[in-house]
Design brief:
single chain; about 400 residues; Rossmann fold; Glycerate kinase, domain 2; 6-stranded parallel β-sheet; 14 helices; Glycerate kinase; transferase; glycerate kinase activity; Glyc_kinase_flavodox-like_fold; Glycerate_kinase_sf
């Protein structure tokens, strides 16, 4: 018997075997919803009498909109916005059933997957489209914005986003800087005029969903840590870092807000800093917000087992990624959590210290990456089936020994 998160209840009496299925998306392969359905199929092959509760998960990155909508309901909308290097892209966002809460992924408008590898340039990339996406949500009446910061192509500190919402940036001669806000323009900002900021954004409750706590600049900042994967050369990293430091000074002068060292300010190429500077924003771990929204506590109560998963599991998973967040939420209930991963990397075993009972790679034979991504659903189903068969056999063995 399957239960979606909004339909949780007693399933088959107190002795029923119920599995909560709460995976992340498998990046570049399948959504969290598709992953959950594949896992469910495997669970039911092993235990046709099992109850299943599907709770798609996300941490603020790819798949957050679809995961939250699947869990709590609402409307998925698609709007045209400007891409990170110009041109039009169609970006999806979600309006929850309350009519006032919008869920936005900055990557839908300004994400790295929108730029071909050979064209990646964080000096030129802009978050202007993310600002347009926010404006679309405001136009629909949203007063609460949940903004996921993951997978950005940008390093503009949210300058482009702020431009789209009415903030003006001027040079030393008092002339408004031409072009979209981007990493290359940061060092030229002499003054910031936020008087034209959309008042609806200024009044909105903004929650930044991020597993990143990096400051805006410095050796642990946005440019140094994430710039190279966006195409920045060592020289560009230095220029971008100087630009963000200068930008932080101009923000402090214009708004009185010191965002330079704020935890999470460096998320998404400094977009975290822009949201903190110009909005009523707080930064929270994305997985914590999603588990709360989805009612995960209610889902896991009384369950026998939780199965989570993600595309790749390594030491970084412990820092705010879905499997670690799911394990933390399940721990007070004493329910074991198993993680199914597309691949296990260095340090994956550290998850055992964060509440994960067992880790399994879904690859059941030597596989090329494209083959593993193509076959993710049947591989997940097979792995889930084996996990449940083992779990039930072990549980039966334990009972026979008492």
């Amino acid at each position: 018997m399957e239960r979606r998160i909004g339909e949780i209840g007693e399933i088959g009496g107190e002795d029923a075997f119920r599995v909560v299925i709460a995976p992340d998306s498998f990046k570049g392969s399948i959504s969290s919803v598709a992953a959950a359905e594949a896992i469910r199929a495997g669970v039911l092959r092993a235990a046709p009498d099992a109850g299943t509760t599907i709770v798609p998960m996300a941490d603020g990155g790819e798949g957050t909109v679809d995961a939250v909508l699947a869990a709590v309901g609402g409307e998925r909308l698609v709007v045209p916005v400007e891409g990170p290097l110009g041109g039009e892209v169609m970006a999806a966002w979600g309006l929850l059933a309350d009519g006032r809460t919008a869920v936005i992924e900055m990557a839908a408008a300004s994400g790295l997957p929108l730029v071909a590898p050979e064209a990646r340039d964080p000096l030129a990339a802009t978050t202007y489209g993310t600002g347009q996406l926010i404006r679309a949500a405001l136009d629909r009446g949203a007063t609460r914005l949940l903004i996921g910061l993951g997978g950005s192509a940008t390093n503009d500190g949210g300058m482009g986003m702020a431009q789209a919402l009415g903030v003006r940036f001027a040079d030393a001669d008092g002339r408004e800087l031409a072009g979209r806000g981007c990493g290359a323009l940061l060092e030229r900002i002499a003054s910031i005029d936020a008087s034209g900021l959309d008042p609806r954004f200024a009044a909105a409750e903004v929650t930044v969903l991020s597993d990143v706590t990096n400051p805006l600049c410095g050796p642990d900042g946005a440019s140094a840590v994430y710039g190279p994967q966006k195409g920045a050369t060592p020289e560009a990293v230095e220029r971008l870092d100087r630009g963000l430091a200068h930008y932080a000074e101009r923000i402090a002068a214009a708004t009185g807000r010191d965002v330079r060292d704020a935890p999470g300010a460096g998320a998404a190429g400094g977009l975290g800093a822009g949201l903190l500077a110009f909005g009523r924003a707080v930064v929270k771990p994305g997985i914590a917000v999603v588990t709360e929204l989805a009612g995960f506590d209610r889902a896991v109560a009384g369950a026998a087992l939780v199965i989570t998963g993600e595309g790749r599991t390594d030491a970084q998973t412990a820092y705010g990624k879905v499997p670690a967040g799911v394990a933390a939420a399940a721990r007070p209930h004493g329910v074991p959590v198993v993680c199914l991963s597309g691949g296990l990397g260095a340090g994956a075993e550290t998850l055992y210290g964060h509440g994960i009972a067992a880790l399994f790679s879904i690859a059941n034979r030597p596989l090329a990456l494209d083959e593993a991504m193509r076959d993710a659903e049947p591989l997940l189903a097979e792995a889930a089936e084996n996990v449940v068969r083992l779990y039930r056999a072990a549980a039966g063995f334990g009972r026979s020994r008492r």
